[in-house]
Amino acid sequence: MHDVKNIKLKLINEGLHGKLSENEGEYNSPWNIATSFTINMSFTALEISTMLVAYEEEHSTGMDITAVSEEIFRFTNGYPFLVSRICQFINSSGSKWTAEGVQNAVKIVAAEKSVLKDDIFKNMENNNAIYNFMYGLLMGSSNKRVSIFDPIVERCAMFGFIEVDSIGRAGVANKVFEMAMIDYFISKENSAGAVADRVCSGMHNQPIY
What we know:
This protein has helices at residues 7-13, 45-59, 65-76, 80-93, 99-111, 115-125, 128-139, 151-159, 175-204; strands at residues 162-164, 170-172. The longest helix has 30 residues, at 175-204. The chain has three domains: 1-38, no CATH class; 45-111; 116-204, no CATH class. By secondary structure, it is mostly helical. The N and C termini lie far apart (56 Å).
């Protein structure tokens, strides 16, 4: 995300693309793109299995390719970086190429620091409305329908945080993002609670005049 968002500006600076129009800059998009981008960049479970077939031919792990590919897809929804990172972790850590091995890799990938997650959290912190929307979606009790024409919903979808189905139900784009965001929100609440406790403790210790 960090690299992709600068592509158009780079082309402009190199004289390979015209300057942004007034409308293109209207929402200060991190992608600097105003027109719809409809190409689905995610992998399907079948495409993941095709990559695993090539890996299996070289390494002969004995994995159940269908089961492993479907488990990877279940957690990533085909998000390319996450698919690659989970496979990389299993390969480098010596974990087993099983559904359980995928689940263990997901826990590590969801918890580890990365440029991708830095961008996710930065974009939430830079916009209170986005932060509140995602917090409500993950930590709230409501399950109301949304409109993709809502600027906040549109922005969250543009960032790849959410997907909205045909009847207006919003959900986090994949389970890895969901796990990482929930941990982030809980950590923020714990930190805020600790600060509040210290403030209250300091007030109680103040002399009464």
